[in-house]
Amino acid sequence: MSVSQRERYPLSLEMQEFVRVNQGFAAADASLNARREAFLRGCRHFTPVKPQGLQVTDTALGNLPIRLYKPSGGAPKQAWPVLLYLHGGGWDLGHLDTHDWFVYALAKRLNLVIVAVAYRLAPEHPYPAALDDCLTVWNALRAGELGDDLSRQQLVVCGDSAGGTLAAGLCMTLRAKGESQPLGQALVYPVLTTETFQPSATLYADAPLLSTTGLEGSFERYLPVAQMRSEALAMPLMANNFRGLAPAFIGVAEFDILRDEGYAYRDALEADHVPVSLYLGKGLLHGSLRAQGVEPVEAFYDALAQSISTFLANANDSIKGTPNVTDLG
Fold first, then answer.
1. Would you please indicate which residues are annotated as catalytic (active-site) residues?
2. How far apart are CA 166 and CA 300, in angstroms?
3. Domains of the chain by range and CATH?
4. pLDDT tens, 116-150?
């Protein structure tokens, strides 16, 4: 962090050290391959030891790689609840090996199966390729194609950053198709609009780990056609209404350009009577959930896991999407 940044972002010593270490994994050059390799190195550095007893299996749906994380022992009531996890990385970084750290944190707290998706990345595969891949896995789960011991009904979707966008977009897509919603959508510092009218986008424009300049580059690669930026399935805050969407948990970081997008989405869901809770990670930055062991980070995971548990506890209250394509905006 620069001297100016330290003055404007009152981070704890632990978070300052996290930023320092994270910035040590800078890409060798500006090429996409170098950025992807650097991201992988950084994520692996912050990945803890796999939780004891967790079974990890790599498989694929056609050409789409997925990874299953299953607790040891038999499934409760013959079927495991399932969390569909969509990783972050600005839609152009990340795959199955970059986000074990996130899954491990939830696996320590939840007794369910987690299915991670290595969706196609931009700019080689711009929108809607990633969303289509997520929908493919969702449909496979609903059809029981990933194992007889996985529930077809007790399904929750979760994503961080760009993955949070995809999780919210998946719910929007299911609503447009008139299909059943997940029991809940857990969105961790999600990207929800390409418009920078939210105060946090100005307040924290040069924040460590995610700046407005960096985010704009991700938009250019993921949404190369201007019209894409106004599509609600791509940027869910652009929708005209939010009726019938899955109950939501929205977790935001205090010093993040995306913070107020989370608040705006909470307000939009509440206005259309969608159950929603919002958690503020005080003293945290975008991407700082990699800093496991830091008290505010662990508290964030606790809140996220508790919300997912609540979604699953309300399994009998699963809702149907209410289709109205013209309402999506």
1. 161, 256, 286
2. 20
3. 3-314 (3.40.50.1820)
4. 999 999 999 999 999 999 999 999 999 999 999 99
